[in-house]
Amino acid sequence: MTPLGAALQKAARELEEQRTAILEAWLRGLSAAPLPAEGDLRASCARELDLFVERLGRGAAEEVLDEEAREGARLARAGKSLQARAQSLSLLDRACLAALAAGAGEGAEAALAMAELAARRLEALLRASEEEGTRRLLDAQEQAAQAAERARELSRANEALRRSEGQSQHRAEQIALLSSVVHRIASILDPERLMQEAAESIQARMNHTYVAVVVLDDEGVLVGRWAGRPGVGRRSAGRAQGPAGGVIGRALRKRAPQVVPDVSKDPDYHPDVPGTHSEMVIPLLDGGEAVGAVDFQTEKAGAFDLDAVAVGETLAEFLVVALRNARLFSEGRRSQG
Q1: Phi, psi for 17 (deg, rounded to 5)
Q2: What pTM was estimated for this model as a whole?
Q3: Which residues contact 335 (CB under 8 A, 6 or more apart)?
Q4: What is the dihedral of CA 28, 33, 128, 188, to 10 degrees?
Q5: CA gap 260, 71 in Å, rounded
Q6: Residue 17: partners with Cβ closer than 8 Å, 6 or more residues away
Q7: Distance CA 94, CA 159 (A)
Q8: Structure confidence by residue, pLDDT tens digits, 216-236
């Protein structure tokens, strides 16, 4: 049995005792989220929760991860988005962590194990999607090569293939960004350090001019961390003055991504980063409420497309879960101290 499996086996006892509360909390979260539902939701969630807890009770952490990889592959083959599955998992993880925090069982060790399992389950989903995308690309390339042999307009066929490869490479880079950030911050349980590491890893991977991860404090004021190219960024955003403004404020109000291809034409843009030409802000949504945002700025005009928005939303969902886990862990340590 792996160390993770052993730690989760201890947590399983607490989860089994609070199974009913976990199921109800999960169902409430699903009903409040804009997720598609098929069949008897309660019955399917109950079956999945029972199997999940049973596997944890046997210490079969790798069995849980293998099942998630198979589910991700199934969804990818069907051409379905992984967003709904990832959000459902995050709601289940939240309910389990809340149960562990409320119980008198294994405490911090159990919470840490659940946080690691949540991150690795998301990685399994992303890996399955990437593998299916690679398979489809290889199939498309083979079909294009066969068609090119039969086609009279070989140059036009080759040009179409190059465009397809360019789009696939762009998507592969976006998936690699997700995998890189998830791997780097999955085990971090300090909220401030988590935001800093997330900002730095995104900025370094995409070479954006500036990236910030900010959250709203109890007074509704933005606090957070950022990273930028040499001579541009500062390490700590500190506390903002007054209500959230600019494009970030608009994203929080609308609770929707905001993409600005040319900041010089946007009346809300606040010129706080020299050289910025385009900006994208993805809100951090927890239960439908905006609790923060991820801000991307770059000197390239029109830098953010629909793929960037989709990846940003998936990354934001993971950050919400990671920040929530980190806060629960910190609160648990303070209560034990």
Answers
A1: -65, -30
A2: 0.51
A3: none
A4: -80
A5: 35
A6: 103
A7: 47
A8: 888 888 888 888 877 665 444
